[in-house]
Amino acid sequence: MTDPERQNIESSLHETRVFPPRPAAELGMSHWVVDGREDYREQHRRAIEDPERFWGAVASELDWFEPFSRVLDWKAPDAKWFDGGVTNVCHNALDRQIAAGHGDEVALIWEGEPTPGGQPEVLRFTYRELHAEVCRFARALDALGVKKGDVVTIYMGMVPELAIAVLACARIGAPHSVIFGGFSAQAIVDRVQDASSQVIVTCDGSWRRGGVVPLKANVDQACATLEAKGHPVRDVVVVRRVGNDVDWHAGRDKEWSDLVADQAPDRAPEPMAAEDMLFLLYTSGSTGKPKGIVHTTGGYMVWTYFTARATFNLLPDEGQVYWCTADIGWITGHSYILYGLLPNRVPTIMYEGAPNAPDEGRFWEIIERHKVTHFYTAPTAIRAFMKWGDKHVTGKDLSSLKVLGTVGEPINPEAWAWYHRVIGRERCPIVDTWWQTETGGHMLTPLPGVTATKPGSCTTPMIGVDAAIVDAGTFREVEPGGGGLLVIRRPWPGMLRGIHGDRQRFVDTYWHNDRGYYVAGDGARQDEDGFFWIMGRVDDVINVSGHRIGTMEVESALVGHPAVVEAAVVGMPHEIKGTGIAAFCTLEPHWAAKFDADPKAVTDALRAHVAKEIGPFAKPDALRFADGLPKTRSGKIMRRLLRDVAAGIDGHQDTTTLEDRGVLENLRACQVY
Ligand code: 6R9
Fold it and tell me: Which family does the record claim for this protein (predicted)?
C-alpha cells in the first residue's frame, strides 16, 4: 500500500459525512432512472436471482438481428452471454436512433484544442452525420481488405476520426485495439505484435498544450521494428490534424481523406454473434507484459448501455449534455464516451485538449458553453484544479450541471468535498465509480437518487453485481469493517472474456480460487452500512493520475537502459497524481562514474528512456541510486520497505528478513533526483 492510500484510508476512516439523495426535480430532471432505494434493492435482487430474465429484458431494449436463445451460460471462468443472438453494436449506437426518427439530433460534440493563436473549434455530428462518416470509413476498411475478425490498431489523438474509426471497426466486425496516444513506439510494437494486427490508423500528430506529439513518427518507428521482427504492417492510415511533416512510405501509408473521399455513406452492419470479439484493450498487470483484455459484442453492449443510464441518470429529450474527460485510449473513454452513451441518445462531448491549456479555466468554460449536465472526470484532475485555485471556477456559469462523476483511483475526501462544493455547488450528486478495464463498466457506484454518498466511498454494487470482501487466504467473506480482497462472485454481462492469446494468465490472474470468484486485484473494506471503500491495488500495479501502470513495466524499461543493473519501482505519495512513481536503481560502474560527474545527464537519460519504452506518463517522479537494494536472504526485493523510503516515513516495519540493514539506511540517506 502506498502512503497516499494509507492517508486516504486514514481520512476515510474518519469520514462520517453522509449526503442523502435528493429529488430529481430539484436538479430539473423528470425522474431518477432507478427510482429510490427500494427500486434499487428490488432490481438488484431480481438481477442476481434470475439473471436470465433480468438481463434478457434489458438486452431486448436493443436491436438484435437474431434473438438470443440463452441469456447466460456460465462455467467459471467462462461466460457466454446472449448466446445465439446476433447484433451489431454500431447499429445500436447509430442506425437504431435514426430508425426511431432521431437522426437529426446531436450525437457527438467535438471540442478541439485551441490551435496556437487560434480559436477553439467545435464540431457537432448528428446521428445521421456520424453514421455517414462511420460508413465511409467502414467501406474504406473494406477496401483495404480488412475482414471480420482482423484486429485494427488505432493510435490517435482525440479527434472525431478516432470515434469514427472505432465505430467503423465495430460496424464491420474488426476488433479495434486502441492505444492511448501517450504511449511510445515500443508500446505500439508490443501491442500490434501481440494482436497480430496488420492495419494501424493514426494521425500525423496530436496537439498537446500547443505542442505536437509526433504520432505518425512513432508509428513509423514501430513499423520499422515490427518489420525487423518479421511482422510487417500492411496499411497505415493517416489523419491530418496538426500539419507536421511526416515521412511517407508509399504503398503502406494512406491518407484518410483519400480513402473516404469516394465512399458511399452507407455500409450494412456486419451481423455479429453475441460472443464475437468487439475489441481488445491492453492494460497493465503485475508482469512487464501488458494484457490484451478481450471484450465481446453482446454482453459489453448491454452492460455499457445499462450502466451508463443507471449511473448517470441519462434521459433523452431533457436537454442533457454529457462530458467525460477521459481519453478514448482508456476503457473509460471506450465505455463512457462512446459505447454507453450513443445507444442512450444523450449527446456526448469529446475534448481534444488538456485541462490547463490555454488556461486553467478551460474545463469550466466548456461546461458553460455547452451547458454540460453530466461531468465525469478523474480525482487527479480534481486535485489539480484544487491546487490551481477556485478563481478559475468562480464567475463560470456551472448551473447546467446535474450529475458529477469520478473514476480511475480512490478519491480523497478533501477532493470529493471540493468537487461537491465548488463544482457541484452542493446540489449535484457525485458518483464515485469503481470499475476496471476488465469489468467493461461500472461495478460499485452510487446511483443518483438512490444512494446516499460518503466522501471517499464508491458505496454499493451496481444492479446485478455480487461484490464481496474476502480473506486472501480462504476466500471466505470477512466481517464488516475488515479489509480483504474485493471479489465479484457471479458473472455480469460486461465481464472480460479473456486475455488475448494467454488463457493461463487469464485463469491465474483473475480466477485463482475454486469458488468461481472474479478477483479484481484491489483491496477494500465494507463499512457497517455495507458501503465499499477501495484501499488500492494488492498487486504490483499503481494508479498514476488514474493511469494504470505496472511497476514491472517501468522496472523492465529501466533495466533495459545500459546504465541500470537493477531497478525496483514502487508507488509514492504525490499531491496531484495521487500516486507517483519512485524508482530505485543500482548503476553499472562505468555509468556510476558518469553519474558522479553529471547526475542530471544520467537521470535525464533514464527518464527519456522510460518515456521511449512506455510513454512520458510513466517517467519516474523520484529516482534514487544506491549500491544495493533491500533484499530478503532469498534475494527478493523488499518493496514494502522501499515504499516507506519513497514516502519518507519510517513505518517501523519488520526488517528481520532483510539481508543487509545498511542498504536501507543508505537508501534513506541518498539524494532524490
Ligand atoms: C475504469 C478504470 C482499474 C483500477 C482499479 C482500481 C482503480 C478505478 C476507482 C478506482 C478507487 C474508484 N480504480 N476506479 N479505485 N475508486 N472509483 O480506471 O480502469 O484503468 O483498468 O483501472 O483503477 O485500482 O483496479 P483501469
Answer: Belongs to the ATP-dependent AMP-binding enzyme family.
